[in-house]
Design goal:
By secondary structure, this protein is of the alpha/beta class. It has a 5-stranded parallel sheet, with helices on both faces. Helix 6 runs parallel beside helix 10 and helix 8 runs parallel beside helix 13.
Length: 279
């Protein structure tokens, strides 16, 4: 049996998970797969995601193989074979997930999987996580619900080629997408994960701390996942995957403000005031 992750980062989407992936890959005691976001559990338990999860893995493998062929001084054929295996059927099986961590560099290191969509896998999916990974550590970055949704809206608009001058009705249509509303549903998801892993098994990080005190955030994560202090992180202050600065209609902002009021109430009830102020 291959070694499996001892920690997961399950969200939130548009809450600096790509920044975290880039930082933790630098730590000599941590190993993360070369394809960020394996989507193993959400492929199984979020049926709507199956329309694109294979494409995501295959696209990631394609880019890495192309880079290896075009830029490596000596082609690592075993690495190319590993990537080809990740992108080949059968995919999203337990054996496939284990093979994602079957690399020489992973041996003896703390392994992780950063896939924000895992937050939405429901009770059956969470039970599967616990059955397969045991008392895996859970990292969860919490971002202000409206700001997170607006960032995801801009990303989706950019991917779909939406023009700045699109009418408000088009923006409201995009804003009502289930993938935007569901991925910020802290009130539903947090109690489900806490019921399985307990408060001590989940490290909640307020989003603004990443910009305000990135080194302190990484120190907290190092301690939580059980690796030593690393002082060699580069580019801690750099933003990753900045989206186009669309001007958003006031009607869309009003829509999100109304939609996410229950989320704000949950966050105020669940977390301390200082935490909520920093999301």
């Amino acid at each position: 049996m291959n070694q499996l992750p001892s920690f997961l980062c399950i969200g939130a989407q548009k809450a600096a998970t790509s920044w975290l992936y880039g930082q933790l890959r630098q730590h000599p005691g941590i190993w993360l797969p070369p394809i960020k976001e394996l989507h193993y559990f959400d492929h199984l338990y979020c049926p709507d995601n199956r329309s694109w999860t294979r494409w995501h893995i295959q696209q990631g493998a394609r880019k890495l193989i192309k880079h290896q062929l075009n830029h490596a001084k000596a082609i690592d054929f075993k690495y190319v074979a590993y990537l080809a295996g990740m992108a080949s059927e059968p995919m999203f099986t337990e054996a496939w997930y284990g093979q994602a961590f079957d690399r020489p560099a992973a041996k003896g290191r703390v392994l992780g999987d950063i896939t924000p969509e895992y937050c939405a896998i429901g009770d059956a999916g969470i039970a599967h996580v616990k059955r397969l990974l045991g008392e895996v550590k859970i990292i969860w970055i919490i971002r202000d619900p409206v700001r997170r949704a607006l960032s995801q809206l801009r990303m989706n608009a950019q991917r779909r080629g939406v023009d700045d001058g699109a009418p408000e009705e088009k923006w409201l249509e995009l804003a009502a997408s289930p993938e935007i509303t569901n991925r910020g549903d802290y009130a539903d998801y947090i109690p489900r994960w806490v019921s399985q892993f307990g408060p001590s098994g989940i490290l909640f990080i307020p989003f603004q701390h990443i910009a305000q005190q990135p080194q302190a955030v990484l120190r907290e994560i190092e301690s939580f996942v059980g690796v030593g202090r690393w002082d060699g992180y580069n580019s801690m202050d750099e933003k990753v995957h900045a989206t186009r600065a669309y001007a958003i209609h006031e009607g869309v902002i009003a829509y999100f403000n109304g939609l996410f009021q229950p989320q704000y109430q949950f966050l105020r009830d669940y977390f301390a005031d200082d935490f909520v102020k920093a999301i």
